[in-house]
Amino acid sequence: MGGLEIGSSKMWVVLATILMGFCMVCHGGNFYQDFDLTWGGNRAKIFGKGQLLSLSLDRVSGSGFQSKKEYLFGRIDMQLKLVAGNSAGTVTAYYLSSQGPTHDEIDFEFLGNVTGQPYILHTNVFTQGKGGREQQFYLWFDPTKNFHTYSIIWKPQHIIFLVDNTPIRVFKNGESIGVAFPKNQPMKIYSSLWNADDWATRGGLVKTDWSHAPFTAYYRNFNAQTFTASQFNDGKWQSQELDAYGRRRLRWVQKNFMIYNYCTDYKRFPQGFPAECRHF
């Protein structure tokens, strides 16, 4: 059965509340126009004339969607409200990706946890099919209580990950030191909610509690700003650079909320850290 068919009116009250709040504060894209529901049957749903999207996970299946368009450089914003309560074993993924064995990819993944324990925000960058560039963070708020904005700024110079417009990670173009950078392959936006209890929570020690299913995440206020190489130096896009305040916020997040950085994992790289870790 579909993830939202729970046999009561409670879910519809929740949806109505979300939609009312959306109408008051948000002016984003239209999910009918911008995205295709790609798997999971009626576990993926669009509401409110395209203003709100939900993904659900039950014992049978998760669900997912992808953008109709491809993007090559720009800024992508999406507001998410993550699975509440005991979300252990679940993963909500939101990412940009091209296709093929040498694909590029820019990842947000939200790793669920037992009630009262924090989500882990997992980030990664794949270039030419090679990933392994994980950084993980706790968030400084409960991402299940309200919608929060998760953004990717993708320019030829760097990729910036942001949460509520606070930068949490910068991946710089390291082609000058032999590190591939995503710059030639257009990417689509993907998102999915799925069961990953073999690894997601405490390395797989905590399993999904299906008595809490269906698990549901909500999306709204999608926005995409794209630009071309000729616009990189325009004033409009200078605002996408990190100013002094942004650099301070980045340091604050990385000092207080980063819980894993591949660039400091001595056990993983006993022969020496990757080039981008040594030079940036």
Highlighted features:
15 strands, seven-stranded antiparallel sheet, alpha+beta, 280 residues, eight-stranded antiparallel sheet, 15% helix, globular
Would you write up a description of this structure?
- This protein is an alpha+beta fold.
- About 15% of the residues lie in helices and about 35% in strands.
- It contains 5 helices and 15 strands.
- The protein has helices at about 10-25, 30-35, 235-240, 245-255, 275-280; strands at about 35-40, 45, 50-55, 65, 75-80, 90-95, 105-110, 120-125, 135, 150-155, 160-165, 165-170, 190-195, 215-225, 260.
- An 8-stranded antiparallel beta sheet has the order 1-4-13-6-7-8-9-15.
- The longest helix is centred in the first third of the chain and has 16 residues, at about 10-25.
- The protein is globular, with a radius of gyration of 19 Å.
- It starts with 9 loop residues before the first helix and ends with a helix.
- The model is unreliable at about 1-25 (pLDDT under 50).
- Low-confidence spans: 1-27
Task: Report how far the terminal alpha carbons are from each other.
Answer: 50 Å
User: Using only CA atoms, what is the Rg?
Assistant: 19 Å
- Overall helicity: 10-25%
Q: Strand arrangement, largest sheet?
A: 1-4-13-6-7-8-9-15
Mean pLDDT: 89
What share of the residues does DSSP label as strand, in percent?
25-35%
Oligomer: single chain
Q: Which structural category do the helix and sheet elements fall into?
A: alpha+beta
Question: Strand-and-helix sequence, N→C?
Answer: HHEEEEEEEEEEEEEEHHEH
Count of DSSP strands = 15
